[in-house]
Amino acid sequence: MKRYASIIGINENDIAEYKRLHANVWPEILDRLSKSNITNYSIFLKQPENLLFSYYEYLGTDHKSDQDAIAKDTKTQKWWAICGPKQNALASRAEGEWWASLEEVFHLD
Predict the structure, then answer these.
(1) Residue 51 lies in a domain
(2) Is 63 among the residues known to form the active site?
């Protein structure tokens, strides 16, 4: 198992809608994440900075292939089309990233 964390900004005026959407994530999205070996997935909000922190655990053996399968999923693409405009990618993110990856510096089981 490998842990992944990332961060992105969110438009202040979209926070309530973003919370509403994530209180009832479409079942197809949850199913696609599970099929792509993602578990223990959480998104946290930090205000007043308006940052979203994402954390999940990956149980598979080919993260890139599983991420590609998520990106190719038409229902996920529709979900992203709704959620993406509410987000503000960080200028410091790596090339090709939307959510900026975070480095794990400590963990305790």
Answers:
(1) yes
(2) no
